[in-house]
Fold this protein.
Amino acid sequence: MKNKAPIGIFDSGVGGTSIWQQVHELLPFENTIYLADSKNAPYGYKSSEEITALSIKNTEALLSMGCKIVVIACNTATTNAISTLRRTFDIPIIGIEPAVKPAALQTASKSIGILATQGTLSSILFHKTSSKFTKDIKVIEVVGEGLVPLIESGKMGSEETIQLLKKYTKPMIKAGIDYLVLGCSHYPHLIPQLKQILPSQVKILDSGKAVAKNTQATLASLNLLRKETTPPSIQFYSNADIETMKFLLRDYCEEISVEKRDF
Ligand code: DGL
């Protein structure tokens, strides 16, 4: 019975749709419910306590909708709240963290850039992981201030967004990075713009595929994968405006539903 239950995914807003896409690609028959807490975005400047309280609220909402697993499609919520969520809820919980390890292992220039929120870069969990893998590597950490609200309002290609991206990547390019880690699930929506700005040798890494693989492995190990191969039910809910989410998911509009709902 639980195999049919949906995978629950939440983010502070529309960013985690980039993670949902990877989950859906790898597990195309799984039912999914996505919650965009856009009313409370951005999480990036909130205190750890506030981020944890919002993450508990989102997880409770997904549990009340019968989800069998919760995927935190938000680096800021993961790095600040995952241990509390795992202690509080009796359900598998998958998190997302910036892909610092693969970047550190693959860099040839020994210099990598990380673009993330203030909440992620200042978290204890991020520091622990980052310092473990980057001992001999120069790490340029930059807070992507202002990017999340621009993405939430659908302004990915605006001049304001381009100017901010130029400003944030300048010190990274100067330091000769060959990997840019996108440490916020909103930022993969800016990859086309980043590709125009970054030198061609800089590779962009995000964690979407790793999260999808982890979700698949966890469900398989608990024998919780959906067995049917009929089209799944895919529901997206936002507690604010749904236009940007609809735009970001335009390629899937035939198979999904996008609605406004309070949670
Ligand atoms: N999408 C989120 C992340 O991965 C949070 C962005 C925000 O709300 O500040 O960090």
Summary: The radius of gyration is 18 Å. The chain has two domains: 2-96+208-260, 100-205. Residues 11-13, 15, 41-44, 74-76, 117, 120, 148, 184-186 surround D-glutamic acid (CB under 6 Å).
